[in-house]
Amino acid sequence: MIERSIAALIDAGGLPRLEARLLLEHTAGLSAAAIVAYPERELPTEQAQRYLDLCARRRAGEPIAYIVGAREFYGLMLAVTPDVLIPRPETELLVELALTIIRAGARRVLDLGTGSGAIAIAIARHAPEASVEASDVSSAALQLEQRNAACHGVAIRLRQSDWFNAFAAHERFDLILGNPPYIARDDPHLREGDVRFEPRSALVSGIDGLDAIRAIAAGAPRHLNEHGTLLLEHGYDQAMRVREILAAAGLRDAQSWRDLAAIERVSGARR
């Protein structure tokens, strides 16, 4: 028979206590405070069993975000599914840089490879003066972003496109940004942690991980307004090569920005 008290269930889950509490919050609809304050409280058998089933999925390595179907990003709770990457804190640097550029006058913004819509929605929420568009090759990702945008009350124009393929030559933006795939095909990290469960097409980009960044850089000059900016997130050791790619594409003033861990995480340049 299942032990149904909160304390017993946390122990039975076989997970770090924080993860166990997150799954209990999701399963039982309890607040974090209630879980801590009432360890003797018993859950209905059905809820207790569902919680234990979720714990088993987590022990098998499935990301918490996919199990509960949500992840917080830039203060916004977003729905996520295995069709998209899980938003990560380091990507918030991209949003911060974008907001700075918008405050300086940029108005038309394009988020390439938008996934769950984390970047585009955060920008639209914090810079309502900007006109935000977003694209992704995946129709499932675009449907998810539409849900997330509606939940947060922002209007984002969505486009199904493989980078710039669906954009007419005359379409130009003040700011183009994105978090494209940038992991090398044979990178051993692909066999570790959450990325084992994330869509490979959103992670891997050729032998050296830079194929998508090359494609975006090559197309960006045709779709940036004069003095427009391209910003791209990349891997921890790719900044110098990304700056070289941006310069080779004819963009100027290439530079990189460091995240809170002092890693060069985003690089950009201007037309």
Structure description:
There is one protein chain. The model has no long low-confidence stretch (mean pLDDT 95). This protein has 10 helices and 9 strands. 38% of the residues lie in helices and 20% in strands. It is elongated, with a radius of gyration of 21 Å. With 271 residues, it is an alpha/beta fold. The strands form 2 sheets. It has a 7-stranded mixed sheet, with helices on both faces. A two-stranded antiparallel ribbon has the order 1-2.
Please tally the helical runs, counting DSSP H or I stretches of 4 or more residues: 10
- % residues in beta strands: 15-25%
In terms of structural class, how would the helical and strand content be classed? alpha/beta
User: What's the pLDDT, averaged over the residues?
Assistant: 95
The shape, in one word, is: elongated
**Largest sheet: number of strands, sense, barrel closure:** 7 strands, mixed
- Spatial sequence of strands, sheet with the most strands: 5-4-3-6-7-9-8
Q: What is the string of helix and strand elements? A: HHHHHEEHEHEHEEHEHEE
Total beta strand runs: 9
Distance between the termini: 67 Å
Rounded Rg: 21 Å
Which consecutive residue ranges, at least 5 long each, have pLDDT under 50? none
* Estimated helix fraction: 25-40%
Descriptors for this entry?
10 helices, seven-stranded mixed β-sheet, alpha/beta, 271 residues
